[in-house]
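Per reviewer request, we include the raw input and output of the structure prediction for the construct analysed in the revised manuscript.
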Amino acid sequence: MTEKLLRPLRTRPWPERWLTRVLGAALSCAAYLVCLPWDLRNRPSSPGSLVETSPVTGIGVLALAAVLLLLAVHFGLRDALAWPLLLVAAPPAVLLYVSLRTHPGPPDGFADAWPLTWAAVTLLGAAAVLVAGAVARQFRTDLVDAAEEELSLAGRW
């Protein structure tokens, strides 16, 4: 069973391949929705208080990062290098964009700073997913076999 779960997707039938990809995108969306609140605006800690608190917790961000990195490693092992970006990094980036776009901040001078926040978080997440996928890709046995075959063929000439 483990061999089937870790076999490259290009060797699998197309329905299984695409079902696995859709499931990965759905899992990254679900992880975002579970770990981060939909409305990211700061709120007063109590009515009439001047101190604001963020609904985003460190545990939620770490849990989201862990789930996304595990998904990136899985798709890095099983699929081409671009797929982890599309399946793991893109859905949370789209959800974050929609969340920031639909919940504008207070008119305190930072209301229009959300594009910079979105760009920074998206770039950081995409880079982490790409690195995790690339590192996991180094452990694929089919790529090692192909590289050894190419080297042995080159040595014959």
